[in-house]
Amino acid sequence: MTTKTVDVLLVGAGAMSTTLGMLLKQLDPTLKITLVERLDHVAHESTDGWNNAGTGHAAYCELNYTPQKPDGSIDTAKAFAINSAFEVSLQFWSYLVGQNILPEPKSFINPTPHQSFVWGKENVSFLRKRFEALSAHPAFADMEYSEDPEVLREWMPLVMQNRSADEAVAGTRVRYGSDVDFGSLARCMASHLETQPGFEMLLSRTVRDLKRKSDGRWRVKIKNNQTGEREKLYARFVFLGAGGGALPLLQMSGIPEGNGYGGFPVSGQWLVCKKPEIVEQHLAKVYGKAPIGAPPMSVPHLDTRIINGEKALLFGPFAGFTTKFLKKGSKLDLPKSIKANNLKSMMSVGMNNMDLTRYLISEVMQSHDSRIDALRRFFPEARSEDWSLSYAGQRVQIIKKDKSNGGGKLEFGTEVITSEDGSLAALLGASPGASTAVNTMINIIERCFPEQMAGEAWQQQMKAMVPSYGQSLTEDPVLLKQVRQHTLSTLELDQLDASSPKLSAAAEPAESRHNLAS
Hints:
Belongs to the MQO family. It catalyses: (S)-malate + a quinone = a quinol + oxaloacetate. Among the domains are: 57-177 and 464-497, no CATH class; 262-410, no CATH class. Helices cover 31% and strands 25% of the residues. The protein contains 15 helices and 20 strands. α1 (15-27) crosses α12 and α2 packs across α12. The longest helix is centred in the first third of the chain and has 22 residues, at 77-98.
């Protein structure tokens, strides 16, 4: 059995771990970091391009981030938080491009307008209120709104084909939205890290034991899936960023902060079209409203995707129930995750969410024709033969104790759990996930490396990587404008293609925006 000692152990080679590894190596190049991955490739689970929506989640188009309150007003808190977090990601990626660490931006991110579309008078009223609430702030000042079918036909031609002239419709648009190939991004970061002294990538390795020793280090036993060889690692800090596999690893660690957590796995499927004559007619991510009873991750959307340089259209996701925590996981994942300390929480969630369970099962039972019918609400002229079904990655939603009712609650989001001494951190949950990875990983660094972060060297380097670090973009419109102009230019998000005129977020005349009078 080989034994190694490292400063940092990252478990899971997806967007989260590669982002954390890149941040730490930029902050301190002398750190010894090892990344362990169960599969034989980097970023082939939830981070892979075909396993997620690829939306650079900035709350421009995702209607579930702005729920309507009982009094009819719009709750914008989550939208502003996600928008600010995504701006942090854009700043870090811009830094890496500027340092020639990442390749040309179009290899992992492409400008794709973010649009919302609704039909029916009630939904139109909601979208109008949402637009008014968001666009009043500089962060969303470039959002456009229209109820004019001709304008909407220009924005989203496929969506507006052959719709009734009497149908009430509305849409919003932010032109500098993005499509992100998170798989390519993670693999680019991993490739760079492998060239750095003190970094090691161990693929085809499964963590078999995780135990904190009396000296504060973690002893991690791993198995080589190809040779069967056993290895032992000692690490001062461990990050569990294994997607759906993070919960079993958190439970394995035994830290009390992880008690009571469980997971509710949800599968996903997409309808995919690769026919050029159809794909070239649509350049947008068009989000609608989720069906009643559907989980937030099931908000329907028709997306332009560019994955590994290949352009396609995706529609979905169609959710389903599964007991696997990973796409390439085991059907025993859910049963094995049930422990004495989370049994009550999980039973409570199971009993209180029967409607959700029935909805997910009904989604699994859908035929191809029924999925095409759902697509036709977005693309009326869609033909069944042009679309095929693709299976997306697994998402394990968070179950945690709920002191208010003595049971548990189901949460659709992400959450970081850290040990009291900061020697271990785990990321649970899903959306907005990879889009806000940089902000989430910076929060972990602040929690788990407080002494280093208090030093001038790390502070200066952090501000070099993320110029807005330590400041609020939501509260400082001047800084927001400066940062956004830089990132949109560096990442080439201010242009729709190489020959198009630039679409500046700051230079758009106010009178050219569509408003309620158009």
